[in-house]
Structure formats: structure tokens, C-alpha cells
Amino acid sequence: MNDDWTELYRPENLGEVLGNPKAIKDLRDWAISWEAGSPTYKAVVIMGPPGTGKTSTALAMAKEFGWGVVEMNASDQRNAEAIKRVAVRGALSDTFTDTGEFLSAKDGRRKLIILDEVDNVFGREDYGGMPAIAELVRNTKQPVVLICNDFYELSRRSSVIKNETLQIKYSRVSPATVRTVLKKVAADQRVEVDEKVLIEIADRSNGDVRAAIRDLQAVSLGTDHVMEGATSGLSDRLSVKSMYDVMGDILHGTNPRKARTTMMDADEQPDYVMKWLDENIALEYRESEDLSRAYDLLSKSSMFLGRVQRRQYYGFWAYASELMSYGICLAKAKPYKAYVRYNFPRTLLYMSRSKEARGVKAEVLGKIGFECHTSIKQAEEDLLPYFRELFLKNHEFQVSMALKLALVQEEAAYLMDQKVDAPAVKHLMAEIAGQKHPQPMEEEPVEKPKRGRKKKEETPPPPPVKVAKIDEPKPAPKEEPKEEAKGKQKSLFEF
Each residue of 358-381: pLDDT tens digit? Predict the structure, then answer.
């Protein structure tokens, strides 16, 4: 009873995985193609919401086909060096299965390489991770499974993953399927559970099988019979779907008290709810007067949230919540009967998808600012536009700056406005690596001196020194005294 039931009841083969039958069939066909030695795609991407059995399915496939498993998840460092090390280990090293069977790489035995949550590979710790994953997908000699929640984010960062992998989509498991799993677990644990309890746990799970099994284990601790009302201590599984319920009760519903209660149960901050309402009010309210009243109340809510930020007084949250729930629900003159599909806020989508790009930009600005002795803000406003233009158009400047700033592949791709695995980016990084580590020049062999006592070399006699003849100076001719003029008296200076 103390073991984690989610690990205890992991499926042992693909036949035991419940839900998503088409996805399981496609995954089995892919594994069979690897066994035959002719896979169309070397890697497969399993995408879908959390708790739908993506990792469990990959592990069940490995057990069914007798493959070893080499796994990396979000808790591991997933930079270029770590991923290459795992790929080499998976392709070349020997291993054992869970049953103790020896798998030899020389005999061609398969090992499944699983990279979990690959859409969250970003940041300083995971630098170079995405190009390494793309290289692994292209050159692997073993089957590779990439698991993610947001395939759009993953494919946007690498064209190799988008075009050279098999994509398999998982959907949320239906409540009826969740109940079937819960009945099987309860019977195996010899716990009698009322049908209403199973229905309530399945409905609360929001299609998350792992969460449902953990809830069942929580209400079954210390008892053999789980009766109605045992789920009162469980909290609802919050997800994006709960926000759709909030939008439905506020915009489409006519009961303002229910709208306020649903918003409180969602347990989301008012500024997050405000973004949802800002995105979806115009989709539901068609009359101009209804739109005017709704957006006027939303603007007043924004004023209260601004005061929270300035004064750090969170009591204003209550006023903002009342205006957004009770007020906007009553803003419409009459209910609208047409069905409206609510959208996730585009602002949040953009911020989420640009998180890595903003991080890379900050790193580039930090390096430019350090070299130019200026702030990051001034580097962004005054230097980056011209630096990027020169980086794109002048190859000599491109190489020299990449060496001086020690740019990594993601930073070079940002400055070149290319994907990290683009050929131009790879060529630049290869050129930089060649200049960082030039090949040593071949030197002429030098004869080593022989050991032992050296013989004294006879020094040649110095050449004879020629003595130059010096001409003696000739005596100056004596001047004959001049005859003095007669009759002239001598002066004093002449004596």
C-alpha cells in the first residue's frame, strides 16, 4: 500500500495502454520498422497534455520489443555535451534489460533513447541542446523518442525535428477510460470503492490518468472500503480547462454568483483572468453597448490591479475580482445563445514561445555591452541594430566578432536570423572552430644530440692582423722672417 501506484501499474506492453488506440498502433508500426532495419523515420515525437501516458507508452514499447532504455528527463542537464554523451552511450555501449538480459551493441541489439520534455530545453544550462538533438535525430543508429507537450514550440526551433520525425499526438483520456483503470487498480489492491467515488475521481482528473491513480491511492490509505464522501479532502485538478469554465460562466452564463464562485475555485490571480477576458469578451458580446460596458468594467479592474502594484496592498484584488466576475457577467443586456470557442490569450502564447529567444538576446546584449563598456539597455538601443546589420552582410566582421564575443550556436543563429540547425549557422560555427584550434604546421625533423662526453673542438687560429702604416706628419716649412721696413717704429704688441 505504501508503494507509488503510478509506478506499480505502469503498462508492461503496448496492449495494456488504455486510450489513444491510433497513436499506439502508429508507434508499434514504427518499432516494427526498426526491428526490420528499414525505418522511414529514425525518431518519433510523442506530443500531448501531461498525464496522458506518453512516457509510459514509450517504456511499454521498449519492454514489448526487448529493447534497453537510455532516458533523459527535465531533471538532467541537457546541453550539447550531455546529449552527445547519451547518444554515444546508447549507440555503442552494452546494457541489460529489466529482466537481466544482456544486450550487446556488437550484435545489433536495440536500445531506445528517450528524451522527455524536449520542448523545455533552453537556458544557460541547456546551451547547445537543440542543435545536438537535431544532430541526434539525423544521425542516430538507435530508435529515438522525443516527448513534449508543445510541439509548435519544438518545431519552431528546429526544422529537422519538424520535417524528419514521425509525429504522434496523444489526447486526454476520457472519464470512462479513467474509471476502467481505477476499477482495475482497486480490484488488484483488494479495495472496495463506491461507484460514485470512482466517477468523481475520474471527473476531477481532467483526463490525467496519473493524477487519478494518485487520488485513488490517497483515499484508500488505511481502509478496505472507500465510501461516498471520501473525496471531499481532494482538490480539483486545475488546468487550462478550468479557465474555459470561468469564461463560460462569466461571458455566456447569466448567474453572476456562480461566475464569481467559479473564478474563485480556479485559484488564479486576477491579472491572469483579466488577460483571458480581454481576449474573449469580443468573441461573446456582439452588441456595441454590451462591449462598452464590459470593457469599461475591465478597465476599472485594471486600475485596481495597478494600485496593487504601486501600493503593495493586495486588498484591491477583491474589488478587481468582483468587477471582472460579477460585473462583466451582468454587463450584457440579454444572454447570447450562439456557441463560442474561447481562445487562450495570445499575449501569453507569444511570451511563452519567445522565452528562449529573449534569453539568447539578453546574452548577446550582455557580451556586446561588456566589450563596449556600456549598459545592456544602451547596447540594445544604440548598438544592436547596426551590429546585426554588419553581422549579416560582412563575413569578415561576422567571423571576427563571433571569435571575440565567444558566440555559441544559438547566439549566432539569433544574429543571423536563422534557425539553430540552419546550414549557414553550422558553416560559421565550423569556421570558428577551425580558427580556434588550427592544425599544427609540420616542422622539419631536428637531429637529437648524441649522448656522451663531447670532444673539444680545436679552435682555428685567428687570422693575422694587418698593421696599417701610419704616415708621419711632415714638418711644417719654416717661414723666413720678412724684412722689416726701414724707418718704422715697432709697437708694444710686436715685442
Answer: 888 888 999 999 999 999 889 998
